[in-house]
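Structure ticket #2291
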Amino acid sequence: MSAPVPLATGDARELLRATVAQFGPRAALVSALGPQTLCILQLLRQEGLSLPTFFLDTGCHFAETLAFRQEVERHFGVEVHAVRPALDPGPLHATDPERCCAIRKVQPLQQLLGGFEAWVSGIRAEQTADRAEAAAVEWDLRFGLWKVNPLLGWSRATVDEFLSRHGVPTNPLLASGYRSIGCAPCTQPSTDERGGRWPGLAKTECGLHRRSSA
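Resolution: structure written out below.
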């Protein structure tokens, strides 16, 4: 087990520089192509850094999201590798959304991260109660490697302003009332950032960022 990257001030740029310096290509940036990951890609570009970048292609994404992946690749000049589930569970989201997320997201990510020593995520503390308990650098019990959260202290307003200031393209669904964009069957427009995910359920996480290893 490698020692964690230094926390220092928790500054996003500093954390990204430290992560690349310590882990290099053994650290993965995992993206849903949301605003937070776009900020990280922009920060990496400004610092002259890069990380292997992966997109969890669940098989249920909006067509706009799939097309946006190509726009992200063109804009940043990077390859966004698709990670897909080993099997298609069909409309499982309608009867067992937890199991559906496990098959479409958690298991593919677990398989991917087996080849890495750290992963970088775009979670922010204000998004959910689970994420509020995260640290900028922490040991991920679920996946068994270091997890770096460089934007943990950023607000949504900070994210939006940063993207606008640097002319970074965003998923067109954001302009249609979506605040958080996941799989099409389980996402709807909302004024609350996570309120449009799994509408009608208490569920707010797919399982990737839960604090428990269970």
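Closing remark: Strands lie at 27-31, 53-56, 80-83, 118-120, 137-140, 145-148.
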